[in-house]
Specification:
single chain, 7 helices, mainly alpha, about 0% strand, elongated, Chromosomal Replication Initiator Protein Dnaa, Chain: A
Length: about 140
């Protein structure tokens, strides 16, 4: 579950990647590069959280849900058509995902999950054998 610290970390990642300060992208502003940053923030929050459109709008300085829907559509178009936008977003998103996973690479998390599953499967087989022995 995302917490306030995760949102602050996302803002820091955004500031580092785009050189746009938090105060700038949370303020009402229609400059293209700032609106692009807002799109990226909303896309990350939609992807990594279960926040409502209203909540995401509140985080971004009181935007309404229709603006967030528009940001999502425009974001998808920009990912396909704008190389620089895509590069910046992918960098931000991967850093945020890495942070949310506790700084552990996805491959390591997957490896751990597979090991855990194998252990559980072996334990199930062991318990089934015990039940079979008791029933005999």
């Amino acid at each position: 579950m995302i917490v306030e610290d995760d949102i602050k970390a996302l803002f820091q990642i955004i500031e580092g990647e785009t050189n746009v300060k938090k105060e700038q992208f949370l303020a009402k502003n229609r400059k293209r590069h700032i609106v692009d940053v807002k799109r990226m923030v909303s896309a990350c929050l939609m992807k990594h959280t279960k926040f409502t459109l209203y909540k995401i709008g509140d985080i971004l300085g009181g935007l309404n849900h229709a603006t967030i829907i528009h940001y999502r559509r425009t974001h998808e178009n920009l990912l396909e058509s704008n190389k620089d936008y895509r590069k910046t977003y992918v960098s931000i998103d991967s850093q945020f995902e890495f942070l949310r996973l506790g700084g552990i690479p996805v491959e390591k998390k997957l490896e751990f999950a597979i090991d855990k599953r194998n252990f559980i499967n072996k334990e199930i087989i062991r318990l089934k054998k015990l039940i079979k022995i008791k029933n005999s």
